[in-house]
Write a structure and sequence with these properties.
The chain has 440 residues and is of the alpha+beta class. 34% of the residues lie in helices and 19% in strands.
Length: 440
């Protein structure tokens, strides 16, 4: 190897110093310059012919800056500080790229990011079943809690159904005595005026019904007992049925009904005027088919004929009015049965019971307004509601004429033969004969 070749091997290309000339090479070449001639106009091509080097000129003269090819420079790393949307960015950490909405950070090395960049995990069938089971458990717990809460709020009347000598024996099925009293308890003077209840003191029965719930699959039977019925009051005298309540309260009323009908009463429930209105308003009114227009200022009622939704105040007037029909008391008992069936049926409907905005106010109103015997609880009240929602057979005690009661005026006289057929069917837990219902 010649000395020139050794020199060339030791020199690194691109250092800017001229290389020793090769044989047959008439000019100097700088390190890194192209070995072949470039066309004019190309980067690195000579723009003019260089003069030959004069003897004695330095051989290490560097080329002009414009002729020196620039070596590629590495881009400087991004500075920690910078401007973000025209503002100085604080902090020294590098800027992270924006992610689309819902895209989370990668879960691990090599895993796709959460969100739109990767597939979403759908809940498995077991997860759905667990959620449904949890919801059902919560609903069950809430229902059980409300059940016991209602049971604790029921006001029991002690001694109403106590045994006494010659009391009728217990019979198949369940018998309820349902009483609507004219008690003004809980009503202010303004409410009494608005509801046209008057200022009567004391407490009397305004309506009485006997409900029989059979043990089998037959429909329940709801029988109206006219409050002016002539009956024998145990230990007292013959008088109107509502007199027994006025002089002896619920206990004497139960004994009088059992003595007159021969039917053993298992449960007692009573509601006053104020509670009556509150319950109807709590369920958003009740739909009633008014068979004839009613205009009764004494009851504070004015209704048109036809099906309509009655408010609590209107419903109270509807069951109290004596207007309409050849037999006002008979028509009154029919309206009471019609209304009671409608209000209980709506109160027991899923739309009311499932909706907390109606079921909770209804529970408050019902427990505040209703009084029962001490042996009646929430479970019994539930069975009552289901029975009334089963569209019971409705009728009234067959009667035939009037009876004069000393110091009490005219009373309703029962048709004793037909009445016995009716009550014997209830005692034997059998359907009431159709001819008795038609006659009533």
């Amino acid at each position: 190897m010649s000395e020139d070749d050794r020199t060339r091997a030791m020199r690194s290309p691109g250092d800017g110093r001229p290389l020793p000339p090769r044989p047959n090479d008439g000019r100097l070449r700088s390190g890194g310059a192209p070995a072949h001639r470039l066309p004019p106009g190309e980067p690195g091509a000579p723009t003019q012919k260089r003069p030959a080097a004069e003897p004695g000129a330095p051989t290490h003269k560097l080329p002009a800056a414009s002729q020196t090819p620039e070596s590629p420079r590495a881009e400087p790393p991004p500075r920690s500080g910078g401007r973000v949307y025209g503002r100085e960015r604080s902090g020294k950490s590098p800027i992270r790229p924006f992610r689309s909405r819902g895209e989370g950070p990668p879960k691990g090395p090599g895993e796709p990011p959460r969100g739109a960049g990767g597939p979403r995990r759908r809940p498995s069938g077991k997860t759905v079943l667990k959620i449904l089971a949890g919801v059902l458990v919560l609903l069950l717990v809430a229902a059980v809690g409300m059940f016991f809460w209602i049971d604790s709020r029921l006001a029991g009347i002690d001694g109403v159904l106590d045994d006494y000598p010659d009391r009728p024996a217990d019979t198949p099925g369940t018998n309820w005595l349902l009483v609507g009293s004219d008690s003004r308890k809980g009503l202010t003077a303004e409410q009494r005026k608005k509801l046209a209840t008057g200022k009567a003191a004391g407490q009397r029965t305004d309506s009485m019904m006997l409900l029989h719930i059979p043990e089998g699959s037959d429909k329940p039977t709801l029988v109206s007992l006219p409050r002016d019925s002539a009956v024998d009051i145990p230990g007292k005298r013959r008088d109107k049925l509502n007199t027994s309540y006025a002089i002896g309260g619920p206990k004497l009323l139960v004994q009088t009904v059992e003595n007159a009908t021969g039917v053993h009463v298992d449960h007692y429930m009573e509601i006053g005027f104020a509670g009556f209105v509150d319950i109807v308003d709590a369920i958003g009114g009740v739909e009633i088919n008014v068979r004839a227009a009613v205009n009764d200022p004494k009851a504070g009622l004015k209704l048109k004929k036809g099906t309509q939704v009655l408010t609590g105040a209107q419903a109270l007037g509807y069951v109290r009015t004596r207007k309409g029909g050849a037999l006002p008391d008979f028509e009154r008992t029919k309206r009471q049965r019609q209304f009671l069936g409608a209000v209980v049926k709506k109160a027991a409907s899923p739309g009311v019971l499932i909706n907390p905005f109606t079921s909770i106010p209804l529970a408050f109103s019902a427990t505040d307004a209703v009084e029962v015997d001490s042996g009646t609880g929430a479970f019994n009240m539930l069975s009552l509601g289901l029975a009334m929602g089963d569209s019971p057979v409705t009728t009234v005690v067959p009667f035939g004429g009037n009876e004069q009661i000393p110091n009490a005026g005219t009373a309703v006289k029962w048709d004793r033969a037909k009445a016995l057929q009716l009550f014997n069917a209830l005692k034997e837990d059998k359907p009431v004969p159709k001819e008795i219902i038609d006659a009533s």
